[in-house]
Design a protein that fits this description.
two-stranded antiparallel sheet, single chain, MitoNEET_CISD, alpha+beta, iron, membrane, metal-binding, 4 strands, flat, 2Fe-2S
Length: 118
């Protein structure tokens, strides 16, 4: 049971896409990252969060270039991408995640046995 099902009183973040956003940013420019998922201009805020209770995050990049920003909004270092979408995907589809984990561990065991066998 997820936290949102157990305690429905907290504001819930919308996640239409779990994939990260690849965006081009400029050094020292202020960006407002949409933390609620209601914006039409993802990943940037357009003011669609009114009445939800979740505020946008200010993001000021230190260098110019391309950045990966979290699409699932479950990252521990928002707005930066840290592969937390893999946990969200696993929680949405537990049997597939369990099968993938089993196959990966089994394959790793076979490979290490073959490598280290005398």
């Amino acid at each position: 049971m997820s936290w949102e099902q157990w305690w429905p009183h907290d504001p819930v973040v919308k996640t239409d896409s779990l994939d990260p956003y690849l965006v081009k940013v400029e050094k020292n420019k202020v960006y407002w990252y949409c933390a609620c998922g209601s914006s039409k201009t993802q990943p940037w805020c357009d003011g669609g969060h009114r009445g939800i209770g979740i505020k946008p995050l200010m993001y000021i990049p230190q260098t110019s270039g391309y950045r990966l920003l979290s699409g699932c909004r479950q990252s521990t270092h928002l707005p930066h991408y840290d592969f937390s979408d893999l946990w969200v995907r696993a929680n949405k589809n537990v049997p597939k995640a369990a099968l993938f984990t089993y196959v990966a561990c089994f394959s790793f065991g076979i490979m290490t046995t073959w490598l280290f066998h005398p």
